[in-house]
Structure formats: C-alpha cells, structure tokens
Specification:
The relative contact order is 0.06. This protein is mostly helical. It contains 7 helices and no strands. The protein has one domain. It is elongated, with a radius of gyration of 24 Å. The protein starts with a helix and ends with a helix.
C-alpha cells in the first residue's frame, strides 16, 4: 500500500516537473517597473493569450478540416509561382522589355520561395513564432 502511494507521489512530481519544463518561467511574465524598457516592450510584443498557449493536459488536435485548410493554402501558395507564366509575352509587350528580361519574374519568384523554405522555415524552430512573424512582417513592410 505504501509503495503505491510513493509511486503516485513520484508520478505526480514528475508530471509537475515535466509540465513546468515545457514553458520557461519568464515566457508569460507581465511587464512591470522592475524590468527595463526593452524587456517590457519584448514582453508586450511576445505576449500569448492564455487560450493560445500549449496545455499539456489538453494537447492540440490536428483535425481533418485543419489538414484540408493547410493543404489548400499550400496549393494556392505554390500556384502563385506559376500564375505569371501565361502572361509573360503580354508583360514584355506592355512594359517594352525583351523576353530575357521578363523571364526574371518567375525566376526571382521561385528563388524567393526556395530561399524562404531554406532559411525562414528552420528559423521558425529556433525562435518563438509570434515574435518571429511580427519581425518578418515589420522587415517586409520596411524593406519594400
């Protein structure tokens, strides 16, 4: 009987340790006066609502409708690379450039897509995604 209660105690302490190790203690800290200005800005930008946080008690379920949504999104994203091909002749005529010059449109579009897959996807595994997406949107808005 006592071995069962000690086993339950060990399992519950392991669960607490495991669930506590999933999220760093500073991940959802709120801004306060003790933190520096930059730390408070980081905490505000990187805030994740409670309903969006990972809960080990109720893990995320990748349902069939969500799988279909991802499939259609990937299909249309890749299709965007090829929409310009049928109108390249018209673009060359309208912008008064030669065929060699207008062929850079699909070439650069596909190179940019490949660059995103090669460089941005692995960075999504290294950084917190919310802050990473915000930085990418900011960078894109300021560069263009």
């Amino acid at each position: 009987m006592s071995s069962q209660s000690s086993k339950d105690t060990i399992e519950s302490s392991q669960k607490e340790t495991h669930s506590a190790s999933l999220v760093p203690s500073h991940a959802y800290a709120s801004p306060c006066k003790e933190h520096s200005l930059w730390r408070n800005i980081y905490l505000i930008i990187n805030y994740t609502p409670k309903r969006c946080r990972y809960n080990p008690e109720k893990p995320f379920r990748f349902s069939t409708p969500l799988n279909l949504l991802f499939g259609f999104a990937a299909t249309f994203t890749v299709a965007n690379l090829y929409y310009s091909h049928p109108i390249l002749n018209k673009l060359a005529d309208d912008f008064h450039v030669d065929q060699e010059r207008v062929s850079l449109i699909p070439t650069l579009a596909q190179a940019g897509y490949a660059g995103g897959l090669l460089f941005l996807c692995p960075l999504g595994d290294l950084f917190r995604r919310r802050l990473f997406v915000l930085l990418l949107v900011w960078f894109t808005a300021t560069v263009w």
